Amino acid sequence: MSTAVTGDEDVVRTYLTSVPLGRIGGAEEVAHLVRFLVSPAGSYVTGQVIGVDGGWGSTARSIFES
Prior knowledge:
Shape: elongated
Number of helices: 3
Distance between the termini: 20 Å
Low-confidence stretches: none
Helix content: 25-40%
Number of strands: 0
Radius of gyration: 15 Å
Mean pLDDT: 83
């Protein structure tokens, strides 16, 4: 998510306050996980949901709650 996607700096700023790492991740960070999962090292990983979200999914607070 970035202002280029949302067009609203306030939305991005609010989102970033709820991300423990405090930043938007890059495509290369997702690519590292994908590379691991398709490699022999990831061959025993099955049926998992792996969040690549800077810790956002593990926080109790949601920017969508009012």
